[in-house]
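Annex B, item 7. Sequence and structure tokens for protein A, then protein B.
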Amino acid sequence: QVQLVESGGGLVQAGDSLRLSCAVSGGTFSVNSMGWFRQAPGKEREFVAAISWNGGRTYYTESVKGRFAISRDNTKNPPVFLQMNSLKPEDTAVYYCALDGRAWRQYSENPDVTDFASWGQGTQVTVSS
């Protein structure tokens, strides 16, 4: 079974940047879309971004557009990254990497989480004001 491991989280100040990575083991990933979710304390899990199997298409939730960038390089591991710039306190959350069962789909603000077959354990991002 595919295993995902996130890294790169930390404590930063508002306006700073972080780059999250998602390493994959135990299976293939190069034909799958991958995404990032986040969950803040007391809140529901939020879909943040997704990238198609070849990196040709991306999706971002409205609140991170222009600040976050998802990328991937299927020749490397970790293959997927989330560059987070101009971080805000409201970006504070545990960030999860997830592997979709398909190469791409028309994502929305509230995707069906069961479409994502594998999940990482998460990495904490804390943004202080």
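Protein B:
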Amino acid sequence: QVQLVESGGGLVHPGGSLRLSCTASGFYLSYYAIGWFRQAPGKEREGVACISRNAGSTYYSDSVKGRFTISRDNAKNTVDLQMNGLKPEDSAVYYCAADDGPPEVISTQDMCVMLRGYPGQGTQVTVSS
């Protein structure tokens, strides 16, 4: 069965950190650009960080730039999202998504802005005191 699985979510105090991981079952992430999207209740889904197949290009939304870092280890078939300086407004369900669009046409910014890709089930992140 082909699927993406997110892990690492939880409850954290404002200013704290979490590290989310995305793993793949049934396929290799190395063939895909990977994005982390999030959606809070009553809000639209937002692409927060995206990374190209070879990690040569990354994109971050303005809301997380400087606080979140996306990275990938193709040998381990994982893509991580390190989240530092968390704020209550970062609370959401976080999804990873895999996009097989041609990299010469679809940039990491395109992926995040257009929310391209096949998402997993998500992991809840709650930032609260």
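Comment on protein B: Residues 51 and 95 are 14 Å apart (CA to CA).
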